[in-house]
Write a structure and sequence with these properties.
This protein has 289 residues and is α+β, with helices and mostly antiparallel strands. The protein contains ten helices and nine strands. It has helices at 3-21, 29-35, 40-51, 55-73, 79-85, 91-102, 106-111, 115-132, 161-174, 241-255, and strands at residues 135-136, 140-144, 147-155, 184-188, 201-207, 219-223, 226-234, 264-270, 281-287. Strands 1, 2, 3, 4, 5, 6, 7, 8 and 9 form a nine-stranded antiparallel β-sheet that branches. It is globular. The two termini are 38 Å apart. The model has no long low-confidence stretch (mean pLDDT 93).
């Protein structure tokens, strides 16, 4: 990439970052183009040529994605407030746009999300963000302390993991284990991107040493202490495949390190929709001997 191309890409990414950090504001073409220092008369064509989405569609998809997360995972958020956050003056207009995009009304999605059309509708946005927004820090070595956890396993189809997340959030809320006070982890027992590897197993975990009754799908566990290679990922965090590939393909062979017999895991330091998706922070841990 030439210096001129790198400068152009940086300016376009500034526009994306501005949109994602200001979804609550009145975003217009002149304002967004000014952030990237481009002419408003050409910017809409430049944006579409660069990202494959118009500015209007990107803003709409970004707002509707955040709205869908609020509906699915934040039951205290009223639908009227979610509609206003998404830039709609009236719940009816929001409901029409939501149904047109995802095939369900906001209330139906809140009660029983249909994940397949939801994922298909957001694929253009997520592909764009995977290419442009995910940022990796340098790999560091950290001594991770032994951490007792309560875990809820997700076994099988990754398309249904949203339902497991909803159950896990409800269980956490019922037991007073707020993410603001207790750490959130995921243990990756298998590679969700490799169908040949067999059934997917991912554990949704909260750091706690409390004992809970059996029968709620949650068991006690432990993340053992020890040295770990740590990769901090800033940006979209519901797909960590590129970050894991960077650890295994780029960092590990040159490091001379040997792996410990414990799965790859991550800590969700801050996550969407509590923060803008561009500002979500995830630490990915590779256990070392």
């Amino acid at each position: 990439m030439t210096p001129a191309q790198r400068n152009y890409d940086d300016r376009m990414r500034r526009a994306l970052d501005h949109i994602d950090r200001h979804l609550d504001d009145d975003l217009d073409l002149a304002q967004i183009s000014a952030v990237a220092a481009f002419s408003k008369y050409h910017f809409h064509r430049q944006f579409t040529a660069c990202f494959g989405l118009s500015v209007h569609r990107y803003v709409q998809l970004a707002r509707l994605k955040r709205a869908s997360y609020q509906l699915a995972y934040r039951e205290a958020d009223r639908i009227t407030d979610v509609a206003l956050d998404a830039g709609y003056d009236a719940p009816d207009a929001f409901a029409r746009a939501f149904r047109r995009r995802f095939g369900q009304s906001p209330s139906d999605f809140r009660s029983a999300p249909d994940w397949a059309p939801w994922r298909a509708a957001l694929l253009p946005l997520d592909d764009l963000r995977n290419r442009t927004m995910q940022h990796f820090d340098d790999v560091t070595i950290r001594d991770f302390p032994a951490t007792p956890i309560a875990l809820m396993p997700h076994d099988g189809d990754m398309a249904a993991i949203g339902d497991t997340i909803r159950r896990f959030i409800a269980w956490r809320r019922a037991n007073g284990l707020s993410p603001a006070d207790t750490a959130t982890f995921n243990l990756f027992h298998s590679d969700p991107t490799d169908p040949a590897a067999g059934p997917v197993r991912i554990d949704l975990c909260v750091g706690t040493d409390r004992v809970f009754p059996e029968g709620d799908g949650v068991t006690a566990g432990l993340i053992p202490g020890g040295r770990c290679a740590v990769l901090r990922v800033t940006g979209r965090s519901d797909d960590l495949a590129a970050a894991a590939l960077h650890l295994y393909r780029d960092w590990l062979p040159d490091s001379g390190a040997e792996l410990r017999d414990f799965p790859l895991f991550c800590q969700r330091v801050s996550f969407f929709p509590d923060v803008a998706e561009a500002e979500a922070i995830t630490d990915l841990f590779l256990p070392l001997r």
